[in-house]
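Acyl-CoA dehydrogenase family protein, Paramicrobacterium chengjingii. Tokens?
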Amino acid sequence: MPAASDRLEAVLERLRPIFDTVALDSYSRERDHLLLREQVTRLVDAGFASLRVPVERGGAGLSIPELARVLTELATADSNLPQIFRGHIAFVEDRLTASESPERDAWLDRFVDGEIVGNAWSEVGSATVGTSQTTVTHTDDGYIVNGSKYYTTGSIYADWTDVTATDSETGAPLTALVRIDQPGVTVRDDWNGFGQQLTGTGTIIFENARVEPNEVRLFESRFRYQTALYQLVLLTVLAGVASSIEADAATQIASRKRTYSHANADLVRHDAQILGVAGEISAVAFTADATVQHVAEVVQRAFETASERDSDEDRSANVAAEIASAQGQIVLSKLVPEVATRVFDALGASGVSRDVGLDRHWRNARTVVSHNPWIYKARIVGDWSVNGTSPEYVWNIGIAKTESAAASG
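Tokens:
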């Protein structure tokens, strides 16, 4: 692996003390359901919102592989935190790849000032695949947003939320940047998943929420490699979980005094079979980290061709980014939850104590794995490998149009 750049080292030197503090009570926060407001604020105050913003604009100027390194270390401390910033990371990328304009400059300044953006794309209910029941309406007083979103990761901590919606007049798919601190926006901490419980992945309700005209955009104008970048962030979460499992396994094994009559050594830390399990866990953590860095390098190339959108080079780079992120997802979706259970083979019954909380690693990994199910990605990668079929760049969920038509017929 090449030596880290000076700019990355400077960022990590600034952030690692925060990471260390975050790691100290990550389990107790989850157990007591304490939202990560203080931790998010400390990260933002240390420049986390502008890691990708160019140095000449006041940011850290990190490349995507360098950002992935930071996110993996943060995920090792607390797997919730990189996912909290996932929507923000994607919106920063969208502004970085946009044409120069006063609006783009204003957003880069906001990132440097510490303003962050959450996510409000998904809906539950009867919306058909690829559509949104949330609407943007042009009134005499400006634009308003109405609707309800779920899986709104990070928005409970954010200043803005990035909303997908439908133009109420034309039916065109849109995105709208909505200020959260206004009367027309209600954010609920009602995410009920068994993992990643502090990501704020609950409900937002928009009731005539106001949005500035220059913050309404056609969805098709979004940067092309957005799905690959979204998936890369989740891969960093899985890599961080794997690293945390390795550290917890080593600590627990090294500290155990009791052993079994049929064990291989007087101390668990010297037992060859237990050390074999620890080695498997370490190998998966290594594989996860290496996978993240490779995928990040491929996504970086898609960023570098973004200014030549729809050129042959750009199309090739985006296909490569989508495939690489899916390949990484397929592999880590199996390996990380597996070692999250394998750790218990090394510890016996005492390892399942709630006081230790090792079950959180499996719950968190399994929750992350459930995003954009890997079984479909495996088919898509296979179709590309065998038939050269290019993947889609945007994935949607909802009721199939044939089912919706049958229900209304």
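The CA atoms of residues 102 and 158 lie 23 Å apart.
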